[in-house]
Amino acid sequence: MENAFSCSSVEAIPDDPYYRQWHVQSSHITDIFSLAVTPHQIISASGSSAIKIYSTTEPEFSLVQTLDAAHKLGVHHLAASKDGHHLASASFAGDVKLWRSEDGQWIKKGDVTDGNKAGEIWAIALSEEGQYLAATSIDGRINVWDNVAGLKKIREFETKGSFGMAIDLSTDGRFTASGHENGGVYIFNNDTGRLLHSLPGLIKPIRAVAFSPGGKLLAAAGDAKVIALYDVASGEQVANLTGHGAWIFSLDWSYTGEFLLSGAFDGKAKVWSIERRECVATHTETDKTLWSVKWLPKTGRNEGFATAGANRSISFYREATGG
Questions:
Q1: CA atoms within 13 A on the CB side of 132
Q2: Per-residue pLDDT tens for 34-68?
């Protein structure tokens, strides 16, 4: 049986542990739909054709590369491998491109050619070292490709046919999780090719799913305005995190798994303590939609995160304490 924990969506959090460190105004000319993070960079994509790369090792988060005309019709999802060598981008035209970092610069590696039309590939995820790419589709199928084996499709999982709105791969690559328009959340075993769990609890569209770094928990959220936490091994829903007053579009775990970051339609970003099962910080940079929120590479003992969305800008926050 799940436990419910709440955080007010309107009251300020006293002694807020995070402060805004930097703000990249008008980073893109349209909504920023996706952020991806590597050990030294943050990458942004929008409804325009360019993908932009910023350094996270510099205090002003300098723009270090622009992939001009990366996708003619703009990008709705990015995914980066945690080792920082691989990047995938999915566009509104239906094409998916793979990029590789060489000497600090991103170059195109290839395309996912699977007869895709606009909308047939939606959300995407890369495994830790970039070997596997997983993607959802409008008809609920979940596909997994092997990047090492020439982008060969190795898995095709079937669901109940509802639009796949979110996807994630566990750090070890063993599991794929997907979230769907009908509220369905599924976990698949990539080794066996079988459905591991069809998860209960949320009946409205799921817009974000995220495995914890150790793969023990799965977080899922969307139009229900609630973050559900599931035990991956048992499939049991172990907690509900409540407090958002609007649809939740993005989730991201901190590198240690101690905190969960969420971003919502009303422009609010929240930081949740997993141990305490409560919200420890709320930030409202804008009243416009936050399409994507990401934790930044840790510097010393300091945690930090970035938010981006309909205000076309990227805001960077750092922990107020620590060294």
A1: 22
A2: 999 999 999 999 999 999 999 999 889 999 999 99
What tokens appear for 94 in the block? 């239906």
User: How do residues 97-113 score in pLDDT, each as one tens digit?
Assistant: 999 999 889 999 999 87
**CB burial of residue 100 (10 Å; 0-12, 13-18, 19+):** middle
Contacts (Cβ under 8 Å, ≥6 apart) of 18: 271, 281, 283, 304, 305, 317, 318, 319, 320
CA-based nearest residue to 220, from 209, 204, 231: 209
pTM of the model: 0.92
Distance CA 212, CA 177 (A): 12
| 177 CA to centre of own chain | 12
For residue 23, CA distances in Å to 65, 122, 269 come to 18, 29, 15
Q: Are the beta carbons of 278 and 262 closer than 8 angstroms?
A: no
Structure tokens at 312: 């076309």
